[in-house]
Amino acid sequence: MVPLPPLRTFQAALKLWKEVHRVDLTALTDPDGFKNRYRHSGTGSLAHIRRPNQLWQIDASPIDMLCVDGRYSIYVAIDIFTRRILVYVTRTPRSEAVCLLMRRAILAWGVPEEVKTDNVLCWEGKRLIGQHVSVHEIALVG
Fold first, then answer.
1. Starting at the edge strand that comes first in sequence, how are the strands of the sheet with 73-79 ordered?
2. Alpha carbons within 13 A on the beta-carbon side of 25
């Protein structure tokens, strides 16, 4: 018969297991605490997103900072499932920036199933996006 390890060994193993499985343990023992601490905010409206490249969102904004050579615009693409982002900064707002951002995102991540953007970006870049990439759906938001 093999003797049992000391009590401290069990305690250390249990402590390590609780640290490794902290999120799952919280979900089982304290569902409200799990929602408050670990669940992503906004998952209700995006609960249908189940895989990478299912939905990208693209937006642009002028950068509010003083630069010696003028005001810049920032274009951001986000893959909703993975939360990865791609940023493109340009000196002047232009429709080619949307296409360049899309091109870089497609080369880095693959082809999206759906792209959502606001009306202005879609109006500026719809013609160019249609010529350069094949996207299943472009949805207008806002």
1. 85-90, 73-79, 56-62, 115-118, 138-141
2. 9
Two structure tokens written together for 94? 């232009």
Structural fold of domain 56-141: Nucleotidyltransferase; domain 5 (3.30.420)
> What 3-state class would DSSP assign to 7?
helix
| pLDDT at residue 139 tops 90 | no
Count of positions (residues) in the chain: 142
For residues 122 and 140, is the Cβ–Cβ distance under 8 A? yes
Listed by start position, the domains of the chain span 7-37, 56-141
pLDDT digits (tens, 9 = 90+) for 31-44: 998 888 877 665 56
Distance of alpha carbon 19 from alpha carbon 63, whole angstroms = 41
